[in-house]
Task: structure prediction
Amino acid sequence: MTIIRRLMSYDRPMLDAFLECHRASSMFLRSNLFYSGLIDGPDRFHGLYMGVFEGGALTDVAAHYWNNNIILQAPTMPVELACAVAKESGRTVNGVLGPWAQVKAAEPGLDLDRTRLGKVVPEYLYLLSLDEMVVPEPLSSEAVTHRRAGHHDLDTLVAWRRVYDHITMGFPEHAIDDELNRAMLSGAIDDARLWVLLDGDTPVAMTGFIAAMPDTVQVGGVFTPEYQRGRGHARSVVAGSLLDAKVDGAVEAILFTEMDNSPAQKAYESLGFEQVGDYSMVVVDPSTSDVKKKETQP
Result:
């Protein structure tokens, strides 16, 4: 017998075990659970969780979060579960994330403003054991250096994020909100989850962690301005952030990148990342005031 229902606190051990079996493609779910548990509310990391049970076993999970994104780990019933969690939560749907096949199946059935959708594309999912990371020569030789970003970097980083949102996320220029990005980047700085690479005293690249747990970090927001590309800065800034994460206790890193972005794939693979699956992040642009009240991180 198949049952779809809201997950409660007593389901947590079963939920944790299920997500552990899908470890690499469940980082957002695992990280949000780590920080807020199964609390459904308006605060960061809060969300409503639902699951599919088959003969008492948990087979699929979806959560609808404080920032209006639905995140899936639903290998058997993505469409039904995505629609069920959206109905149960009553929240607006501003995005859907998860393994590509699940997102592709579920997205058409959700009430999204498709005039504002960014890219709807598959991405490769990568995993790296930090003990096996290859540190790029420019970083190891200190030809370039890295550090955690500070608030004094914000003007530069907001300008970079505008380009990132246009090119990587697929948002139209007129819809990109610099004020919202400044708040998001400021929060990442406060959380010590944002890094810059320096050539001398000049910032030349940035990266961050879009999800984190004590043992695992998920890399995102990697950007090098066009005039600095082709010099290995992206791989150096990512490696620098992961060296710091390792000192803090992390043992592995996860990231995803578009399947047609071969330069990014080569950069990550040169660090030791290996493909372990696929992923997709389909979200609407931040062009309306209701979105500005929400954080944009998954």
Remarks:
- The chain has two domains: 2-112, 127-279.
- Residues 289-294 have pLDDT under 50 and may be disordered.
- The domain at 2-112 is CATH 3.40.630 (Aminopeptidase).
- DSSP finds ten helices and twelve strands in the chain.
